[in-house]
Specification:
By secondary structure, the protein is mainly α. Helices cover 87% and strands 0% of the residues. α1 packs across α2 and α1 packs parallel to α3. It starts with a helix and ends with a helix.
Length: 125
């Protein structure tokens, strides 16, 4: 239960940060291109890399801290950071094909799922 509360609290913080960042980037650069989503995903990936490196290799951080920051805050800020970490972990283990396959299948299936969801909602409604 404690783990769920840590993830939930971090997720709330991350989601609010994503919203505020998106609003600020859209005001600065406009809405013609999804700059805010791009920025959030890139910054989230950078922060995930820094945090995981510092947590696991430098400071031997607790699982609770990892739950709160990596899964909670950064996961709420962008789930792309978790996806990116998964790809890097596969790559670093020497599973190059698996990493490339994971990227390809994730992008194709996720975008296809959005199209399917739109089609289902439009067809049923």
């Amino acid at each position: 239960m404690n783990a769920i509360l840590l993830v939930a609290a971090g997720g709330a913080i991350g989601s609010v940060l994503r919203y505020l960042t998106g609003m600020a980037i859209t005001r600065l650069l406009g809405a013609a291109f999804p700059y805010s989503t791009l920025m959030v995903n890139v910054v989230g990936g950078l922060l995930m890399g820094v945090f995981i490196e510092l947590l696991t290799r430098r400071f031997e951080g607790s699982m609770e801290l990892r739950l709160f920051v990596a899964i909670g805050i950064l996961g709420g800020f962008t789930t792309f950071s978790s996806f990116s970490l998964d790809v890097v972990m596969l790559w670093q283990r020497g599973e190059t094909f698996s990493a490339a396959f994971y990227v390809l299948i994730s992008v194709i299936l996720s975008i296809s799922a959005v199209f399917l969801g739109l089609w289902l909602a439009r067809t049923v409604a």
